[in-house]
Amino acid sequence: MIVAEINKKYEGQLKRETNKFEKIKKAFVKEHDKDSKRVLELKAVIKAGDKNLSPTVKEELAAETKVFAVKAKEAYDLRVSELKTATNEVIADLKAKLADIVSTQKEKIAQINYDMKHVDTSIMNKMQMIFQDPIDSLNPRMTVEDIIQEGLQIQGMKDRAENSKKVIESLEKVGLISDYASRYPHEFSGGQRQRIGIARALIMNPEFIIADEPVSALDVSIRAQIINLLNDLRDELGLTILFIAHDLSVVKYFCDRIAVMYYGNIVELTTSDELFKHPLHPYTKALLSAIPKPDPYSEKTRERILYNPFTAHDYREEKPTLQEILPGHFVLANSEEMERYREEIKELDKKAEAEAKKEAARAAKKKAEPKAEPKKAAKPKAKSTAKAKADKPKK
């Protein structure tokens, strides 16, 4: 199905790119259909006439065909740079002048240009969103109850008593008490406001949630609480979450699979453990090198990697494609880079094996060492009679 409202300038180019990426799509979808049902598949994204984007970025977006799928009941991370929010808005259909082809459980959203007045209720009920800013995403003139139940009213559920009951249930799910329903957003902390935003998404009983940087605006002490809450809700309610973030320490803990994007293009896609075990693309390595370490010595000796696409790649003879280098591990590369990445994987495996042997030897040595018996405390010596008399105070 051809994307609606595409600039005529890019029509021929889009067709050529679609044909070129068709083989990649087939291999990708085949791998992801093995063990789980796809909840969402984003086949193509075209940004048409947005004044906020430079002509170069517009051309790149129009020329590229993006393919990724989200499995059921998993947390999927979108590690991106400048265009993460734009891609997020495409999936949620929140912004005008965005045309896309999205399939969500056999339901099509295609050739539709939303003007913010029309919402497909059958699909949007299943797809909810948690916004980045917990302050601006809540209406300051509405009570918490009105904010959370607004979605129900839009869908035509006018029973006030029933809606209030659902609001209380949603508040309890996110760890807030029912008394908060009558308060206003300015009366809460940042973490509590984000919990209200999560409750607003949960009240619609969604199957798929887009979380756009849900902890980036929060204090470090609060981030872990929100992440643990989302993790518990995912397991309890069977949610599928598209988690957009830039903090890799959070991503590693929360997400099942990670897609690393650079300027709107997926450069690497694999499971969370595999990405940290075998980071291949130079941009992925640069992101991992930016993670701060708690050990002061390791932090001082940490190698910082800078990514320059003009010096890191040579695509004059062969353009890169998204290729599967290991089962479930995709990387954007040409033939020459694929050979180099295969050698890197061998070196990383050898290094990891050597480290495991060293760790096992240290553990065995520590276990074989005899335990030192604790020294008995020496008994205090009794004072002599003469010294005891001398110590007595004179009358």
Summarize the structure in words:
The chain is of the alpha/beta class and 395 residues long. The protein has three domains: 112 residues; 131 residues, Rossmann fold (3-Layer(aba) Sandwich), CATH 3.40.50.300; 102 residues, no CATH class. 44% of the residues lie in helices and 17% in strands. Strands 6-7-8-3-9-10-12-11 form an eight-stranded mixed sheet, with helices on both faces. Strands 2-1-4-5 form a four-stranded antiparallel sheet. Helix 5 packs parallel to helix 7. It starts with 10 loop residues before the first helix and ends with a helix. The N terminus is likely disordered.
Defining traits:
single chain; 395 residues; alpha/beta; Rossmann fold; 8-stranded mixed sheet; 4-stranded antiparallel sheet; 15 helices; 12 strands; disordered N terminus
Total beta strands: 12
What gyration radius follows from the Cα positions, in whole Å?
28 Å
Q: What is the average per-residue confidence, as pLDDT, rounded to a whole number?
A: 76
Taken in chain order, the helices and strands follow as HEHEEHEEHEHHHEHEHEEHHHHEEHH
By DSSP (H or I, 4+ residues per run), the number of helices equals: 15
Flag low-confidence runs.
1-6, 45-49, 61-66, 94-101, 110-116
Provide the helix percentage: 40-55%
- Going by CATH, the homologous superfamily of the largest domain would be P-loop containing nucleotide triphosphate hydrolases
Shape: flat
CATH topology label of the largest domain: Rossmann fold
Largest sheet: 8 strands, mixed
CATH level 1 class label of the largest domain: Alpha Beta
